[in-house]
TrEMBL record:
Gene3D superfamilies: NAD(P)-binding Rossmann-like Domain. It holds the Pfam family 2-Hacid_dh. Residues 7-337 form the D-isomer specific 2-hydroxyacid dehydrogenase catalytic domain. Belongs to the D-isomer specific 2-hydroxyacid dehydrogenase family. This is Glyoxylate reductase. The keyword Oxidoreductase applies. GO terms for cellular component: cytosol. Residues 113-305 form the D-isomer specific 2-hydroxyacid dehydrogenase NAD-binding domain.
Amino acid sequence: MSNKLKVVVSRDLGPDVMPLLLDNKELDVVVWPHNSVCDRKWLLENAAGASGILVMLSEKAKLFDAAGPSLRVVSTMSVGYEHADLKELAKRNIRFGYTPDVLTDAVADLSIMLALMAGRNTKETTEIWPNFVWSPFAFCGPQLSTTSTSPKRTAGFIGFGRIAQATLARLVPFGFQHCLYAANPSTPADPAADAALAAKYGVRELRRVLLAELASESDVVFVLAPGGPATYHIVDEKFLRAMKRSAVLVNTARGTLVDSDALAKALHEGWLYGAGIDVVEGEPKIGADHPLVKAPRCVVLPHIGSATTDTRIGMATLAANNLLGGLFGKDMPAELNT
Ligand code: DGY
């Protein structure tokens, strides 16, 4: 019998990263051999006897029973970990790695891109040819940057972690000086920390507020909180009805935070100007007839927040190094305390 440690990897991580695992003589590496979402049955069968498992966001990381007592570490190539059963991991002493930080800039970049795309109605303007007839106010919507006639812009963030703050930093050169955010109600407010962040990002106002105020005061609302039951449909009909008619909504977090039907209705009825959506509840099975795909002034992307070559290589490298650290009882570069 081989003394090698078995590891199962649910997607090929590419030529820059796979050698970290494949060239390690102490490992027996089993990789899902197709360029498609890893089949659950294959994963469960191959998990038997594994010491480490590396999964994507698309795979439920509940593989303990299939793997058996040999399992030491689960590593996910994602910053989100709602697919992992943290309580069970802790109970079984299984270490868990994820990929924070490396994707912050890519997702913040995309958040700004979607704010611009939603405000400039690229959904319709990129599909207009050959039927466009110019007129002075055709397709005019809100401007992201401040103007002499409209000098105040307020950004609202649902969730104010790393990606939200990186997004705020990108908004300051557009003239944003006001930042409101809503945070998990179980964490206490900390005005001194808010003042320090206002100074750090160079904005006049940075305040934690309730959702109602965030909805009614923001010119752009960025949804950047974790998924899960606590944030399910946090952007609902009530929230959308309270938004400014000129505002845009950007969701680069999780589809479950936004009630898609309510948002589609809001866009049809003009409760807000537009929406830029990178994540949709029920993804990736989103058809061309999905209410948001059909909604006016709504740009829908296929969850590509972190999809730049550098970032995905960074995430895959971190996930592989987390796996190696956990397998050999060493530090994991990004271990979640479960
Ligand atoms: C993550 O890593 O959780 C992101 O959603 C991927 O883009």
